[in-house]
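quick one
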Amino acid sequence: MAYAHKLIGTHSIKLRDFDPEYDAGLKREQGEEKLKKLSAELTRLQELLYAAGQHSVLIVLQGRDTSGKDGTIKTVMGPLNSLGCQVASFKVPTAEELAHDFLWRIHKQTPGKGEITIFNRSHYEDVLVVRVHKFAPDKVWRARYDHINNFEKLLTESNTIVLKFYLHISKEEQEQRLLEREQDATKYWKLSAGDWKERQYWNDYTRAYEDALNQCSAPHAPWFVVPANKKWFRNLAVAEAVVAAMKPYEKQWMKRLEEVGLKSKAEIEAFRAKP
Ligand code: AMP
Ligand code: MG
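structure w/ adenosine monophosphate:
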């Protein structure tokens, strides 16, 4: 049973059709119990992915300020073996990055075979913040949907499993989270006047997200709309989708391990047999 809503073709979804409070009727304790099992499964699948070295996994996290991108990385990806797992955070582009095409800094961070990479923000900022704040002319950012689709196709044709998550929170929930940060000295470091400023563009971001989700969903690179008002459910939904995407490869990876193992064993035996 999937907890996030998967988009796999050209759509015309509206974010208002998705309830950010959705929790599949689960209690928090039930959700956390399920997450524990999924985490164990994810760790096991990561080891197979790493050892087989045939595929890569790219997890894109997008969402408004306070939607829980950092929290998802900490909770869902935290248990993974850091040997084969990286996080790449994309901030305001540097002068050098701006002097290149928008995918230049992105492509460099994509996962190699056997690796999982989590994008904390991504190439989608170039059709989100760039569009909302008119950092580039319409013609420039509009052309990027095709560039993104082609780029993600290239990645998947190079054996990358691409999964994109939009962490969906309500405007009220965001306000509450921003205010909570002001009440808790240990969270002061997260405070940013910019978050309150961006909030004024809520509807513009909604339109920009809807276009990105509608125009850049494909069976090989789906978007998932993740109900994210409840943090425990958000974690569960992301973990469930990642496990579901990796699981079909399990047998293939195990077969590969067996082949590699038998080959190495034969080599050792041949070495020992030499006089
Ligand atoms: P944070 O994720 O809170 O560390 O903030 C990173 C900031 O970088 C956000 O305000 C993003 O909108 C901004 N950002 C990321 N990518 C781009 C981009 N391509 N162009 C402009 N701003 C960006
Ligand atoms: Mg921020």
